[in-house]
Amino acid sequence: MAKITDLSKSRYCKGVQCPKILWLEHYKPEEKADILPESVLENGNRVGDLARRYFGDYSLVEFSFDKNVMTAQTALFIASGSENVAEASFLTEDGLYCAVDILRKNEDGWDIVEVKSSTEVSDIYIEDMAFQYYVLTKCGVNVKRVYNMHINNKYVRRGELDLKGLFRLEDYTVKVIEKQSAVAENIESIRSYISVDDEPARDIDVYCEKPYECAFKGYCGRHLPEHSIFDLAGIQARTAYKRYHSGIISFEDVLANAKELKLSDKHRRQIEFTLNDLPDEVNAEKIKAFLDTLTYPVYHLDFETYQQAIPEFDGVSPYQQIPFQYSLHIEQEDGSLEHREFLAKEGTDPRRALAEQLVEDIPVRVCSLAFNMSFEKTVIKNLAELFPDLSERLLDIRENMHDLMIPFKDHDYYSKAMMGSYSIKYVLPALYPDDPELDYHNLDGVHNGSEASDAFAAMAQHSPEEIAVIRQNLLKYCGLDTYAMVKVLRKLKEAAGE
To answer: Cis omega before residue 211 (within 30°)?
Structure first.
C-alpha cells in the first residue's frame, strides 16, 4: 500500500511547487477543485503516444497499479536488448518512483527522454527530469544523457507527418546533474512536511498560481475578504501577492495606501464602485460617437476556433488557431434580425468551406461588428493569406470591422458588476443581470469557448447520434455569442438615448 511519503515524479513536482498540495490531496481531497480540462490530459497522451515512434521500434511497459509489475517488465525489456523502452519504470527501496517516457540505449548506458506537449521547456520540466535522473541512478542505471522532447511550433505540415520536424529534442544533461543535490534536499523537505497528521500552516503565495494553478487555491484562500487585492482587474500575480504579504489585502486597504501604490484610475474606479455600490456610469456623448461609426445593416460576427498539437491538415502548425464555426446575426436599422451560421463537418479541414460561406454571407463594404475584434481580424487575415482567390473579399470584411468592446474598454459605460473588466463575460451579465435568455449556464453541453473547441476536436470520435447532439449544442452556443452582441448594442443605444 502506498504511503504519503512515497513520491512519483508528478508528486515530486507538486511538492516542489507547494508541499501542502500533497498533504491536502491525502487528508482533504474533497477540497480539491476540478480545474484541469480532460482535453489537456488527452492532448498530452496523444503527443506522448506519437513521440514513442521518434526513434523507431520500441517496447511499451503496460500500465499497472502495481508498480512492481511495471518495474519487472522494464527489467525484462532491458535484459532482452530493447533499445527504446516507453514508460520504463523504476522504483527505489525507499518509495521513489518514476516512469520514463522513453528510455533509449546509448552504448553502455541509457538516455532519458522526457516528452512534453508544450512548445518550450519550463523550470518545472527540468525539476521533473532531475528527479528521474536521481531515481534511475539510485536504481543503478548508467544514465548518459537527459533530453526534453517537445513540440516545434515552427513546423508546418506538408504531406505525411514528419516527426523529426514536429518535435524538438534538447539536451538538459548538465542542468539536470547540477540539480542532483537540490533533488535530495527537496525529497527530504517534502517528506518531512507531509509526514505530520495536523494540517501544516502555509500562507498563500505565487506558488498557488505557478507553474500551475493549484486545485486547492480556493481552500487555502478562504480567509480572504469578499473583495481583495486579487480581485483587481488585470493585476499581476506577483504584484498581488507582494501587496498581500505587506498587509494590503482588502479593497479598503488598497484605497488607504492609494498614493504609495500609485493606484490607477481604472483600479480606483473598480474599488469605489464596489465599496460604495455606485450606479452605472454612462458617457452618452462618447457612446453616441461610437454608434455613429456604425452603418446598417450591422453584421454581428463571432468565430470559434480550435488547436491541434499534432497538425492533421496541410499548411497547419502546432497550436495554430483553426476556425471551424461562425455565427452571424444581421441587424437592420429597425432592429429586425436574420441569423446565418456555419459549422464544419467533423474530421475535415474546415477552413476553405468556412471562408467560402463567409464571403457569401457578408457582402462587400458592409459594417461587421465583433467583440474584441483583434481575434476575428486575425482569423480573417490568416484565411486571406491561405486562399488568395478569396483574399480581396475576406480583407474587405476585415477592413470594415468595428469593435463592440471599445465603449467598455474606454469606460464610457461602466458598471460595478463588470468588476473592472471589459470582457464580454463580465459585460453581458452586468447589462442584463438574471436574464435566462442570455445565461450561458442554461445551455446544454457547450457553455464557453474552451468547451466548444474541445467538443469539435473530439466530435469525429462519437457516434452519428452523439454528433447530431454535439452539433446542435455548438450551434446554440455560438448563436448566443452573436445574439448577446445584438443585445449589448441595444443597451448602448439606450444609454445614448437612441
So the answer is: yes
Q: Is 200 in a helix, a strand, or coil?
A: coil
Q: How is residue 494 written as a grid cell?
A: 439606450
**Cα dist. 109→104, 141, 146, 375 in Å?**
9, 7, 12, 50
Q: Report the C-alpha dihedral over residues 8, 11, 13, 17, rounded to 10 degrees.
A: -160
Mean pLDDT along residues 457-484 = 96
319: left (phi over 0), alpha (psi -120 to 50) or beta: left
Residue type, 229: I
Q: How many CB atoms lie within 10 A of CB 417?
A: 16
User: Considering the chain, what is the average pLDDT of its residues?
Assistant: 96
Question: Is 237 in the same domain as 379?
Answer: no
According to the model, what pLDDT value does residue 151 have? 97
Query: Cis bond leading into 297, ω under 30°?
Result: yes
pLDDT digits (tens, 9 = 90+) for 206-237: 999 999 999 999 999 999 999 999 999 999 99
As a whole number, mean pLDDT of residues 14-26 equals 97
Task: Note whether 350 and 489 are same-domain residues.
Answer: yes
For 231, residues 6+ apart whose C-beta sits below 8 A from its C-beta are: 251, 419
**For the domain that residue 455 is a member of, what is the CATH number?**
3.30.420.10
Buried b / exposed e across 28-65, counting CB within 10 Å, b at 16+?
A: eeeeeeeeeeebeeebeeebbebbbebbeebbebeeee
348 and 290 fall within a common domain: yes
DSSP β-bridge partners for residue 81:
none
Co-location of 333 and 432 in the same domain = yes
Kindly report the pTM of this predicted structure. 0.90
User: Radius of gyration of the chain from Cα atoms?
Assistant: 27
- Beta bridge partners, 147, equal 113, 171
What does the pLDDT read at residue 337? Answer: 97
Where does residue 491 rank: exposed (0-12), middle (13-18), buried (19+ CB within 10 A)? middle
Mean pLDDT along residues 429-435: 94
- 39 band by pLDDT with thresholds 50, 70 and 90: low
Q: What is residue 151's three-state secondary structure?
A: strand
CA 82 and chain centroid, separation: 37
**Beta strand pairing call for 298-306 and 367-370:** parallel
CA angle, 403 as apex, 434 and 407 as ends, to 5°? 60
What DSSP element (H or E) covers 400? none
Look at residue 325 in the predicted model and tell me its pLDDT.
98
What is the sign of the dihedral through the CA atoms of 362, 365, 371 and 372?
Answer: positive
Tell me if 393 sits within 8 A of 364, measured CB to CB: yes
Q: Which domain holds residue 468?
A: 281-498
93 exposed, middle or buried (CB, 10 Å; 0-12, 13-18, 19+)? exposed
Residue whose entry in the numeric block shows the C-alpha cell 443581470: 433
Give the least confident one: 28-42, 142-156, 199-213: 28-42
Strands (E), 57-207: 59-60, 84-91, 97-106, 109-115, 143-151, 167-171
